[in-house]
């Protein structure tokens, strides 16, 4: 079972609340058509240019990595014949190389053979700086990627790499077909429309139609390596609408088979499930609903320098007193209970799990204390001199623009936080943005979460698998989105601290698990105590499935669709 800090089974464990039976294997496509609802509509099918699970998970039907994480958090070979280890010679004794061997039965969906050259090219694609690769942190310290023969690839690191499974492992870094993506290296990456919306892959499905922000249609890959899979001949992933309507389509009307990411009032979900047409499935991994704090100035008067380090520091959100007060004003238990029920726990950390990485240094935020929050602001010179209910200092008002995606649970949370912050003298303007825009990758849109044209924003993020090294790399200085990299990168708060970067480098060369965990906790604590992020809820993943759907294994460590080849329909 779980506690407030994580999972008793340690670093490769997941708490899976529902595990559905697996149907017996059948003829490829025998189960007909599968309808899936990702109400946050996909806008791209290239994980290297993607901003979130709404794009990455649908892409996983087509694009696959060398290895991935199963529903328990264990790493398993996927396109690789086996997991490289020191014992089998796949990892060198000095920890500076890892050698992968591909399965010999791999073909692209166009019928051509998968080779080591595709793997080498994929690494080059992401490591080419001008391409704005979202997953560049996973290739940290990689100095060379070489094809030793048609099926064997060796990655070399600049220093000993105790955990060398970052590159090309997990749903975020799949293998691309060199022949298709060769024209898309570097600065051309963003403009490769066909490649980014209809990639040729090795997965159980191939794309037959893509309408950004609306629908993706798939058909079974005729060259998939298992002749009896996938179970469904065709799949549609439909976007749009909202979480409530998606849940209703599975649990009440039976119009769909699977509905993803159901941020819906728990009592409403339970009532829907009582209808008997479907069931709710949940699992816990690493996702945390958090507030991102803009450490740069988002004023429109700055023009192209808006929300960039070049435009200067935020006028008050770099003041530790303001950030501490805002955090103490929040009743996280109320947020978790209202929005998530059994699928949420209050947290003060960005690394709440696995248990070995969980810190206890920030737990004071678990208790709401409005009086202390007011006193902290008062002591720091933030006072309501004119009696309008809003504190100011040196002519600067504590007034924030707080944005998030359109979602009933998030809007309820916004309303709660606005009320609590008003109680301590902070004015809040709320903004809600369509999820397909907010989490989209359109560099021209002013409303993407990476441009961050606001003071505070809220969403959930997580790291696939069980080792947080690549995830923590997101908050190094080089991970900051900015115009020069087409606003790509996951350092959304624009946090930049040389000490943090040095810890990231130390983590990369540390081998002992306990030592790695100690560094990770220290990095977590630096982010929390700097106020770069304000965690709210350790979220379980919640989806709904039809009672006729078999083979689903809910997975919080990879894609929820990770084993879709095994899904079938009950007869």
TrEMBL record:
<dbReference type="Pfam" id="PF00496">
    <property type="entry name" value="SBP_bac_5"/>
</dbReference>
<protein>
    <submittedName>
        <fullName>ABC transporter substrate-binding protein</fullName>
    </submittedName>
</protein>
<dbReference type="InterPro" id="IPR039424">
    <property type="entry name" value="SBP_5"/>
</dbReference>
<comment type="similarity">
    <text>Belongs to the bacterial solute-binding protein 5 family.</text>
</comment>
<feature type="domain" description="Solute-binding protein family 5">
    <location>
        <begin position="75"/>
        <end position="477"/>
    </location>
</feature>
<keyword id="KW-0732">Signal</keyword>
<dbReference type="InterPro" id="IPR030678">
    <property type="entry name" value="Peptide/Ni-bd"/>
</dbReference>
<feature type="signal peptide">
    <location>
        <begin position="1"/>
        <end position="26"/>
    </location>
</feature>
<dbReference type="InterPro" id="IPR000914">
    <property type="entry name" value="SBP_5_dom"/>
</dbReference>
């Amino acid at each position: 079972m779980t506690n407030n800090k994580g999972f008793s089974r340690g670093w490769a464990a997941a708490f899976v609340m529902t595990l559905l039976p697996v149907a017996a294997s059948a003829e490829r496509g025998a189960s007909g058509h599968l309808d899936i609802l990702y109400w946050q509509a996909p806008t791209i099918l290239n994980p290297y240019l993607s901003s979130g699970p709404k794009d990455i998970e649908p892409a996983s039907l087509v694009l696959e990595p060398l290895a991935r994480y199963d529903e328990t958090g264990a790493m398993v070979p996927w396109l690789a014949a086996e997991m490289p280890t020191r014992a089998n010679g796949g990892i060198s004794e000095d920890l500076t190389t890892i050698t992968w061997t591909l399965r010999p039965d791999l073909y692209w969906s166009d019928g051509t053979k998968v080779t080591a050259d595709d793997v080498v090219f994929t690494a080059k694609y992401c490591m080419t700086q001008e391409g704005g690769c979202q997953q560049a942190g996973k290739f940290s310290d990689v100095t060379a990627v070489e094809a030793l023969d048609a099926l064997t690839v060796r990655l070399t690191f600049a220093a000993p790499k105790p955990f060398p499974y970052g590159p090309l492992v997990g749903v975020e870094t799949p293998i691309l077909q060199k022949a298709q993506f060769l024209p898309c290296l570097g600065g051309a990456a963003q403009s490769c429309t066909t490649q980014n919306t209809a990639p040729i892959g090795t997965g159980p499905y191939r794309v037959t139609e893509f309408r950004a922000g609306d629908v993706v249609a798939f058909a079974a890959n005729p060259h998939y390596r298992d002749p009896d899979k996938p179970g469904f001949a065709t799949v549609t992933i439909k976007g749009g609408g909202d979480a409530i309507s998606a849940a209703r389509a599975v649990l009440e009307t039976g119009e769909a088979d699977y509905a993803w990411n159901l941020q819906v009032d728990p009592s409403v979900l339970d009532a829907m499930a009582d209808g008997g047409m479907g069931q709710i499935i949940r699992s816990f991994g690493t996702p945390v609903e958090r507030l991102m704090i803009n450490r740069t100035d988002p004023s429109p008067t700055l023009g192209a320098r808006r929300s960039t380090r070049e435009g200067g520091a935020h006028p008050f959100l770099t003041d530790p007193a303001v950030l501490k007060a805002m955090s103490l004003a929040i009743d996280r238990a109320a947020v978790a209970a209202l929005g998530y029920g059994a699928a949420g726990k209050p947290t003060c950390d960005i690394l709440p799990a696995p248990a070995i990485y969980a810190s206890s240094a920030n737990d004071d935020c678990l208790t709401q204390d409005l009086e202390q929050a007011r006193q902290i602001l008062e002591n720091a010179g933030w006072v309501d001199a004119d009696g309008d209910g809003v504190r100011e200092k040196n002519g600067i008002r504590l007034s924030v623009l707080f944005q998030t995606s359109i979602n009933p649970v998030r809007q309820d949370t916004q309303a709660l936080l606005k009320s609590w912050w008003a109680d301590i003298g902070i004015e809040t303007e709320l903004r809600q943005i369509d999820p397909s825009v907010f989490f989209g990758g359109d560099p021209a849109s002013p409303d993407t979460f990476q441009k961050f044209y606001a003071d505070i924003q809220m969403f959930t993020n997580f790291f696939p698998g069980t080792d947080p090294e690549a995830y923590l790399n997101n908050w190094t200085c080089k991970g900051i989105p900015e115009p020069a990299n087409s606003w790509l990168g996951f350092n959304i708060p624009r946090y930049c601290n040389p000490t943090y970067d040095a810890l990231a480098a130390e983590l990369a060369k540390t081998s002992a698990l306990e030592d790695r965990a100690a560094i990770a906790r220290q990095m977590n604590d630096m982010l929390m105590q700097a106020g770069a992020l304000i965690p709210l809820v350790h979220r379980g993943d919640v989806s709904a499935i039809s009672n006729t759907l078999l083979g689903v294994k809910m997975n919080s460590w990879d894609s929820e669709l990770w084993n879709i080849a095994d899904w079938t329909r009950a007869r």
